[in-house]
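We modelled the chain as a single entity of 629 amino acids. Its sequence is:
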Amino acid sequence: MKKIKLFTITILLTFILFPYIVKAATFLEASTQRPVVGSDVYVLLNAMYGDLEIKEVNVRIKYDPAYLRYDRTFWIQGKGTVTTKDGYLYIKKSPDSRNWTSGNQMQFKFTVLKEGVSKVEIDAVDENGQVVESYYANGDPVAQSFANVTINAVKPSTNTFIGSLYVEGYNLSPTFSKTKYEYSLNVPADVTSVNIVAKQGEKNQTITGTGIKKLDYGANRVRVVVSAQDGSSRTYLIVINRKDDRTGDTTLKSLTVSNTNITYDKNKTTYEATVSKTVDSILITAITNDPNATMTGTGKQQLNIGSNTFKLHVTSSGGNEATYTIIINRSNEVIEDIKQSNKLKSLNINNLGFTLDDEKNYYTISIPNNINILNIEAIPESKTATVEILGNNNLQEGINLITVKVTEKSIEDEKQQVRNYLIVAFKQPNNAKLVTELNTNITSNIIYETTIDTSHIISKDILDTLKDNNYKLYYEVVNIYNGLEYQVTLNNISSNEDLDVSLNQIDNKNLLTYETKLPKDVDILLYLNERYLDGVNVRLYSYTTEGQYNLITDGIKVDNGYVKFTTNGDTHYIITTEDLLPESEPLTAFFKNNLPLIIGVIVIIIVILLLLNVIKKKKGSKSQNEPLY
């Protein structure tokens, strides 16, 4: 019994410490063992050889052509040849090609032809019906064992009834029933979008038309389509009526006229100023309080000597109209202006007037991908100052840095005083389209741009369309006056559910912290709001709800106010120059870094102690049985 016990312990330890001392196992597994008729099923060939490599392989795959149609083979690792013949696949790896290593070798794609049970089998037989060997790299034959896979094909479902349907925050009329196909609801005028939510009647259904829907004034017809597994479909219609109470506001938020001291007064519609003979043009810029109002009469205007009258016409979103009159008297004499300054009086980019701040030299703007140069009107405070614009040509995709250099020569000491205004222009990706232009003819990447919308939800049906056409999705949160706040780039689009791409800054003990639901491996371009200077290397951490910090990288360089990083799947990210991870104690660090070695030493010590104990007991037993003299 003691010998048997010792032998058993030795065998167990051998398999624990040396798991590769077993014969090779070659087996098949299916992507699903209950595929639907008409769908694809993938059969994976797994070859497990331990740590050894195989130089020559000969195996045969058998399938029933009445149930399955072979389409193609995908090589995962290694290379070889595949020959097809009457329901057989012959796989051969020649000795002169790269050796196979243990793991998944190849995948076979089949189309399911009919309902029922069939097998995909594997053995070591060649095209002549002869048993053939496979060989390790050292020349020894492989003692293989084979395992087959059974596939039970089923008919596709024809169920097109939806499980549930509702509009988040609202009640449908009539009350939902899966056999009622038309619904309606009313929303206030300030509701610009709603979230359509639906659940499947069964797991094999596909539902399109749900997610965030932007609303126009009046009736909005939303169709939710439920497609069964067999391809048949049913449509549910929701008519959403948004109240139309568009404003009649024709007032201005701001009005500026270059080279004048005109300031806007909400109680005035007529303005007048006098300029020097040397001023031959002015730039009129204005912003309406009604964001949907239309306005004409802004821009650069030429001046004649004498009185010049200009009309600024505003039409509100509700149809009301107003006219603002600007009278500029150009003198026939030179009006001296000895003001010395290296500051700008006004800055206009692509007909947008920017509010200047003495403490701020940094401005951002977002532009579409068809603009290669900005129309910049930079008017200095001083008549003697010069303005030079640098970098405003051949604007490239992404971040472009443009410098507006204002130079003033001091009258007192004739030294130059220079002030630089930096414009960061973010240009949308080339050959990309807005997602609102999405149709079946688009063959380029897609931008899902948001300026006003704060929901930041990409619906599943949009993601499905992008994924099916192999598009890349850029989601940009843009402010006209503050440029690109952040951009999310999805290289591998998943369409399992609606995707929340919001990136929200939150308060976290004075640390620059963002909260998001984005999955792993999403590229982020983020504007830091001038929190850190350009060229500074910041650290990127993520942390869980338990407050555990994870250092992603300590070397992100701030470039023109932006940083780039890739998500790791956590919900919170911190950008800082601080070290948030305390150094480990030396002993703790040693155990952490050498854990596999320590476990191996402990196992060896236990084996030695067991063997010594067995030997000691054996010697003791022998001494007791010896004769006494």
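As a brief sanity check on the tokenised model: The chain is about 10% helix and 45% strand. The CA atoms of residues 164 and 177 lie 8 Å apart.
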